[in-house]
């Protein structure tokens, strides 16, 4: 190969590398501007565009982790990027902070799991959405029957009561509790679990009669599920 051709290829390769470096710098600058403006998700996308899997971008993972942790309150995503930082720079300048922050994120996730032990709030929301869809379908079908003069009878179900559960039908470790004057879900959680933060655990177990609300009344019988294992 002629020397001039080799030189041309080298120049083109160098130009390509310079362009990539310039693009990466632009992505980082854009990410910094977005973060300062409070546009955290666009900032994360800009940071991610600068990632190339090399140790040079370890700090980018750390910056992304901080945004997920401090700004977006998403500990699971934060843990992923803290881990990536520690993999790429185990002795980096942020290694100690990353390890400590990762432990705090794990504690946050654990607390959330404890509070949603009986049924996650996300699952409860899905059930409510499905119930609403069924209600709308019933209204649609009733309309069809009425327009075609087809007789039908609407049978309204009786509201579910905790008393409907026979003692032997309750899951192992589950109890019943009759609400006293001055009780709250938090105080009941403290009495049974020694942890007021587990109030939602009781709330989820009684979601049918409480209808997703925190209000309870004197004389009401609540199901008290077994304490979450974690």
Structure description:
The protein is built from 9 helices and 2 strands. With 230 residues, it is mostly helical. It has 2 domains: 3-115, Serine Threonine Protein Phosphatase 5, Tetratricopeptide repeat (Alpha Horseshoe), CATH 1.25.40.10; 121-224, LysM domain (Membrane-bound Lytic Murein Transglycosylase D, Chain A, Roll), CATH 3.10.350. It has a two-stranded antiparallel ribbon with strand order 1-2. The longest helix is centred in the first third of the chain and has 34 residues, at 3-36.
Key structural traits:
230 residues; mainly alpha; Serine Threonine Protein Phosphatase 5, Tetratricopeptide repeat; Membrane-bound Lytic Murein Transglycosylase D, Chain A; 2 domains; two-stranded antiparallel sheet; 2 strands; 61% helix; flat
The DSSP helix count reads 9
**Could you state the order of secondary-structure elements as H and E?**
HHHHHHEHHHE
Coarse shape: flat
Given helix and strand content, the structural type is mainly alpha
For the sheet with most strands, the description reads: 2 strands, antiparallel
Q: Under the CATH scheme, which architecture of the largest domain would be assigned?
A: Alpha Horseshoe
CATH class of the largest domain: Mainly Alpha
Give the overall pLDDT as a whole number. 78
Determine the N-to-C terminus distance.
68 Å
Give the strand content: under 5%
Radius of gyration: 28 Å
Task: Please name the fourth-level CATH homologous superfamily of the largest domain.
Answer: Tetratricopeptide repeat domain
Low-confidence region ranges = 5-19
CATH fold call of the largest domain: Serine Threonine Protein Phosphatase 5, Tetratricopeptide repeat
What portion of residues is helical? 55-70%
| Domain unit count | 2
Task: Write out the strand line-up for the largest beta sheet, numbering strands in chain order.
Answer: 1-2
Multimerization state:
single chain
Task: Find the count of extended strands (DSSP E, 2+ residues).
Answer: 2
């Amino acid at each position: 190969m002629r020397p001039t051709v080799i030189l041309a290829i080298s120049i083109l390769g160098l130009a390509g590398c310079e362009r990539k470096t310039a693009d990466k710098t632009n992505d980082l600058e854009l990410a910094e501007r977005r973060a300062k403006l409070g546009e955290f998700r666009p900032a994360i996308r800009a940071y991610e565009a600068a990632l190339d899997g090399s140790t040079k971008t370890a700090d980018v993972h750390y910056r992304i982790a901080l945004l997920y942790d401090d700004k977006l309150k998403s500990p699971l995503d934060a843990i992923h990027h803290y881990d990536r930082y520690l993999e790429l720079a185990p002795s980096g300048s942020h290694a100690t902070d990353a390890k400590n922050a990762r432990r705090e994120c794990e504690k946050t996730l654990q607390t959330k799991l404890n509070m949603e032990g009986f049924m996650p709030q996300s699952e409860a929301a899905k059930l409510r959405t499905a119930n609403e869809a069924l209600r709308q379908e019933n209204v649609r079908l009733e309309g069809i029957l009425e327009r075609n003069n087809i007789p039908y009878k609407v049978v309204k179900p009786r509201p579910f009561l905790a008393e409907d559960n026979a003692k032997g039908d309750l899951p192992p470790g589950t109890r019943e509790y009759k609400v006293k004057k001055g009780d709250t879900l938090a105080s009941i959680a403290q009495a049974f679990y020694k942890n007021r933060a587990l109030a939602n655990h009781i709330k989820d177990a009684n979601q049918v009669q409480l209808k997703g609300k925190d209000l309870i009344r004197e004389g009401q019988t609540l199901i008290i599920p077994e304490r979450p294992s974690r």
